[in-house]
Amino acid sequence: MNNHIQNISWVDAPWLKEHLEEVSILDVQPDIHDYILEHIPGAVYFNENHLRAFHHNLPSHYIPDQCLQQLFQSVGLQKNKAVVVYSSNGRFSKQGDGLEQSMVAYSLARFGHSNVLVLNGGLKSWIDAGYPLTKEYPNVSASDFHPSLNSDLFVNYNQFLEIKDSPDTILIDVRPRSVYQGPGLWEKPGHIPGAKSLPWRLLMDRDNPRLLRSQSSIKELVLSRGASPDKNVILYCGTGREATSAFLVFKYYLNYPRVKLYEGSFTEWVTYSQNPTVTGPKPY
Fold it and tell me: Are residues 121 and 12 in the same domain?
């Protein structure tokens, strides 16, 4: 076990407005021009695409720690200071899908930040509250942040093989149902054998992919898949990005004690020719 004490939670726009001077703020909108056009006062731009690169035979793998350290230090990230993460659909780029916030929040926790706050509803909630936006850029000094890997949050390929078929494990595919059932972008169609379908988008508000649904409605959904708190819950998607949204919900919103993200996800699974996949609506 690691000794990381982790906390990820959600805050609303009024809370952020009141504590604006007490936190670091990362704007993770999909494109730099979205940030240039409008952002919350004091926010520093950070693009999630900098976090991963091609590695060996995988197209999406976290970059080396020394590179991450430079990224995190350059935006002034401090381990002892709460950091708020927010995003939007991208008023300029129109490329936001709702996953920018969860991907960056998960990554910060993965590399040792202990107090990550997600703006529930994203930039839209700030705008809807009538709070000001700016085009000014803050003056940020580099920090001394050093990444510290928290391996309790995820499983690698070999760990996944060891536990995926255990009777007390629930494997959940959070990709869209059509991809779960049939052809997608990958060499093989369908899903990993045994996986149940729970698209991450169902966990969020229908009109705002950055706004959580109520705990009661989410609990009903996850329990209908057999994902009770006494189970080992393993979440996967295409490349490990979509699953960050569901991971945050299970671990920090529902407080499930044994939830892991299979970061290699379906992309890694199908790189091994011997691994089967299943098509159709059923796990097997």
Answer: yes
- Model pLDDT for residues 31-56, shown as the tens digit of each residue: 999 999 999 999 999 999 999 999 99
| Cβ(267)–Cβ(24) below 8 Å | no
Q: Which of 75, 204, 237, 248 is catalytic?
A: 237
Q: How many domains does the chain have?
A: 2
Per DSSP, the three-state class of 97 is coil
**Residues 185 and 240 both lie in one domain:** yes
For residues 19 and 82, state if they share a domain. yes
- Domain containing 66 equals 8-128
Interval 98-136: pLDDT, tens: 999 999 999 999 999 999 999 999 999 999 999 999 999
Residues 6+ apart with CB under 8 A from 250: 222, 227, 233, 235, 256, 259
pTM summary value: 0.96
237 is catalytic: yes
